[in-house]
Design a protein that fits this description.
Shape: globular
Number of domains: 1
Largest sheet: 5 strands, mixed
Strand order of the largest sheet: 3-2-1-4-5
CATH class: Alpha Beta
CATH superfamily: Ribonuclease H-like superfamily/Ribonuclease H
Number of strands: 5
CATH topology: Nucleotidyltransferase, domain 5
Number of helices: 7
Distance between the termini: 35 Å
Order of helices and strands: EEEHHHHEHEHH
């Protein structure tokens, strides 16, 4: 599997945002999920390596305390540099002989922020700019909305978000297949 859905949680919406957590799920479009990777940084590390905005912090304050605390104060966390190095190595290894193809629910947020942080840490992105795919655009084109499927898991948990987005892509793929089948 060389397709990877990426989801992050942050303390800002700009490309310079501090990252709270990163999740990646390997998958084959329309088929299945595979390997998964989750890294948590927490609020202190997010503030050290990126920007924060009052609007985003206020938004986090509106979330249930358990959701907010899981992101801000994880039981295990690490520094951004080692997390990004391990993530880069993992993507290359998991992709095997193929180039990693990264997907996100809109490429101007998750992928852009992650790439910015990798650049700051002098870690090359393991994907080419031609291997970035926007799951939101595909779903929108096929008439699939985020709430078309029941969300399984915890809100604002990036791993659960990745799995939901992959499920939505499967629904979009099924709609496409149904639209292209010959009519009896």
């Amino acid at each position: 599997m060389n397709n990877f859905m990426i989801d992050i949680e942050t303390i800002d919406t700009r490309v310079t945002a501090g990252i709270l957590s990163i999740a990646v799920v390997a998958f084959e479009p329309g088929v299945s999920t595979g390997l998964r990777r989750m890294s948590r940084l927490g609020i202190d590390e997010a503030r050290r390596h990126g920007t924060e905005s009052r609007a985003t912090l206020d938004w986090w304050q509106e979330q249930p305390p358990a959701v907010r605390n899981a992101q801000f104060y994880p039981s295990q966390s690490d520094k951004i540099g080692p997390i990004l190095e391990r993530l880069s190595e993992w993507l290359v290894l998991a992709a095997g002989d193929a180039e990693p193809v990264v997907w996100a629910w809109g490429v101007s947020f998750d992928i852009a922020i992650l790439a910015h942080q990798m650049d700051r840490a002098s870690i090359p992105t393991p994907w080419g700019r031609w291997n970035i795919v926007d799951a939101r655009t595909i779903c929108r084109y096929m008439g699939v909305k985020k709430d078309d499927l029941e969300f399984l898991g915890k809100p604002h948990n990036p791993m659960d978000d990745c799995v939901h987005q992959i499920r939505l892509l499967k629904l979009a793929s099924d709609k496409r297949d149904a639209a292209t089948l010959p009519k009896p």
